[in-house]
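Recall that a protein's primary structure is simply its ordered list of amino acids. Everything else, from secondary elements to tertiary packing, is in principle encoded there. The following example makes that idea concrete.
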Amino acid sequence: MRKWGIVLAGCLLLTGCTATPGVSETGETAAPVQATATPEAATPEEALTAALGAVKTRRLTVVLNGCIAYEVDSAGGSLKTAIAAADLVVYLAGDYVPADLAGETALWQDALSGEDQATMDANWPKVYTCAQNICQDPTAQQGLLDDAGVTTDFSAMDLTEVPAQLDAMNEVLTD
């Protein structure tokens, strides 16, 4: 039982250690998807599940906010695109992807301001393509990733499920 408490405390700590939501040039903040509170009568397993769900949602919010943290046609836009795509691939290859990725992505998108949605509409096609290219042939993308300062070894990662997850997100984000 003590292990569950430690795991829950760690998850809650991770929830508070993530980056802040993206801020547009007008100072508006992209709203994060809010997780529901855990009822006090929940069992430790239910509390852990709720905490992990909150962590997954928060991490998705942080990764997607990285896609609107810059303007694609700005100086260094291609490098910023590579960073956003690399972060997305790392996230999707990890253990913290929500079961309803498309639904959580739609909730995030629905909370965007008009300006942030316009930025996402401009940035997403290049982020999506770059992420696909990383999955298809990480070695061929190494030069761009090196220039962007990305040090992740994608060739050592299991990326088999990532293209389908990218497609699910693309379907939501381009509707």
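The two ends are 45 Å apart (CA to CA). Confidence is low (pLDDT under 50) at residues 1-29, 31-35.
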